[in-house]
């Protein structure tokens, strides 16, 4: 059952287990949600999306609301994540991008020169009315369950703009970064402003936490990341406003794949929570990130395709290793794979809760 439907867990989103874990406060049980929890693993998603393009769906507040709620109802996860996409701020600003099924974002005119960078249209906040409508509707429907807003980080968005689509090596992106440092800086500055605008709109409308996805940052060395990328990611968080970590601002989660060597830096960019993929165990990740930040992760999404005994063993290992962190939000190490059995996801939510119930903060009110 979702927290929204469970009267025993009458909390407000800003005091939910997710927000508390992000701040390193005691929780009633380890909060759990899944990256890509809304999407093709759910038959109700496939039914609702039939006949509507991905980018059209993301700009329809009623569809966004319904799709975002589907996994909360079905799995009883501890957070909703807004149904959207990292390229949406670019699309809304007028950049010609399509999301091709089975491929990902494809850019009609890739960014390959200083002139291309300067020609990128800015994101006008007035164009985000649909987004704020969706967030407000969601906050009303979700009750005590927090809504996570998100944006793509400047580097990861730059990879799509420069490559023109998904890429493994990101060779053109790196070549541009090395050969055109000034244009690179200008591109990432612009992307940081648009990401901050996109996040700000969601927070102003009531999102309880934000996640900045720098999915492909792991292709960089720590030195290049620190010098050429981190300052721009930090600018996104700075542009979001609010004070230091605490009650006066929504928690910030920062995630990338293959970032084992970058974990301390990812935290330094301004995160309260560092997202970890499956490559680094959470106890080791906690050492790398230090005592001032919480962790999110990190079950290998492929484990969910294995037998039940393997799932249970791996879930319990992740819960156990997560205890080394200041706070732990259970998640996968990357998004739900489309052919995942949704029943297994529901089982994982129940198991994480069972394994982590804490007597220190009972879920039913004391008499
Ligand atoms: C790199 C990236 C993208 N988009 C996103 C990232 C960062 C996260 C990550 O590292 O996976 C972020 C994203 N995209 C989507 C969400 C929704 C929220 C959630 O449930 O996590 C989020 C958080 C929906 C989506 N975004 C997309 C889908 C699938 C489209 C569909 O259902 O038709 C969904 C549910 C499309 C998309 N968009 C993108 C890709 C690679 C794809 C997959 C293409 C495919 O395999 O068909 C770019």
Automatic annotation (TrEMBL):
Transition state stabilizer, annotated site positions: 85
CDD domains the UniProt entry points to: URO-D (cd00717)
SUPFAM superfamilies: UROD/MetE-like
Gene Ontology biological-process annotations: protoporphyrinogen IX biosynthetic process
Pfam families referenced in this protein's UniProt entry, alphabetically: URO-D
GO molecular function, one term: uroporphyrinogen decarboxylase activity
Principal subcellular localisation of the protein: cytoplasm
Pathway: Porphyrin-containing compound metabolism; protoporphyrin-IX biosynthesis; coproporphyrinogen-III from 5-aminolevulinate: step 4/4
Signal peptide: none
Keywords: Cytoplasm, Decarboxylase, Lyase, Porphyrin biosynthesis
Cellular location(s): Cytoplasm
Residues of the Uroporphyrinogen decarboxylase (URO-D) domain: 31-40, 148-164
InterPro entries according to UniProt: UROD/MetE-like_sf, Uroporphyrinogen_deCO2ase_HemE, Uroporphyrinogen_deCOase
Superkingdom of this protein's organism: Bacteria
The reaction(s) this protein catalyses: uroporphyrinogen III + 4 H(+) = coproporphyrinogen III + 4 CO2
Chain positions recorded as substrate binding sites: 36-40, 85, 160, 215, 334
UniProt-listed Enzyme Commission number(s): 4.1.1.37
Broad enzyme group: lyase
Record GO cellular component, one term: cytosol
Free-text function comment from the UniProt entry: Catalyzes the decarboxylation of four acetate groups of uroporphyrinogen-III to yield coproporphyrinogen-III.
The family this protein is said to belong to: Belongs to the uroporphyrinogen decarboxylase family.
PANTHER family in the cross-refs: METHYLTETRAHYDROFOLATE:HOMOCYSTEINE METHYLTRANSFERASE RELATED (PTHR21091), UROPORPHYRINOGEN DECARBOXYLASE (PTHR21091:SF169)
The protein's assembly and partners: Homodimer.
NCBIfam families assigned: hemE (TIGR01464)
Name of protein: Uroporphyrinogen decarboxylase
Naturally occurring in which organism (per UniProt): Blastococcus mobilis
Lineage: Bacteria, Bacillati, Actinomycetota, Actinomycetes, Geodermatophilales
Gene (name only): hemE
């Amino acid at each position: 059952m979702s927290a929204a439907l469970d009267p025993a867990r009458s909390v407000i989103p800003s005091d939910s287990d997710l927000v508390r874990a992000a701040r390193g406060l005691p929780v009633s049980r380890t909060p759990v949600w899944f990256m890509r929890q809304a999407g093709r693993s759910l038959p109700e998603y496939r039914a609702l999306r039939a006949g509507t393009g991905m980018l059209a769906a993301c700009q329809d507040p009623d569809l966004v609301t319904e799709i975002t709620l589907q996994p909360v109802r079905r799995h009883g996860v501890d957070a909703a994540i807004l149904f959207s996409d990292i390229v949406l701020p670019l699309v809304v600003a007028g950049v010609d991008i399509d999301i091709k099924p089975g491929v990902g974002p494809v850019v009609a005119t890739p960014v390959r020169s200083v002139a291309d960078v300067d020609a990128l249209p800015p994101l006008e906040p007035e164009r985000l009315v649909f987004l704020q409508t969706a967030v407000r509707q969601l906050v009303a429907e979700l009750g005590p369950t927090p809504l996570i807003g998100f944006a793509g980080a400047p580097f990861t968005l730059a990879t799509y703009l420069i490559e023109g689509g998904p890429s493994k090596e990101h060779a053109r992106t790196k070549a541009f970064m090395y050969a055109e440092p000034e244009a690179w800086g200008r591109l990432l500055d612009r992307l940081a402003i648009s990401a901050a605008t996109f996040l700000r709109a969601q927070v102003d409308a009531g999102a309880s936490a934000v996640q900045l996805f720098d999915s492909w940052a792991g292709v960089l060395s720590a030195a290049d990341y620190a010098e050429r990328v981190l300052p721009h990611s930090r600018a996104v968080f700075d542009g979001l406003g609010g004070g230091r970590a605490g009650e006066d601002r929504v928690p910030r989660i920062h995630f990338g794949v293959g970032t084992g060597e970058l974990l301390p830096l990812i935290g330094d960019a301004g995160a309260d929570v560092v997202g970890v993929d499956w490559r680094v165990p959470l106890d080791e990740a906690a050492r790398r990130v230090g005592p001032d930040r919480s962790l999110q992760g990190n079950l290998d999404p492929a484990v969910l395709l294995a037998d039940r005994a393997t799932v249970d063993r791996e879930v319990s290992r992740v819960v156990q290793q997560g205890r080394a962190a200041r706070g732990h939000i259970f998640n996968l190490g990357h998004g739900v794979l489309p052919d995942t059995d949704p029943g297994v996801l529901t089982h994982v939510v129940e198991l994480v809760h069972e394994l982590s119930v804490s007597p220190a903060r009972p879920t039913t009110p004391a008499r």
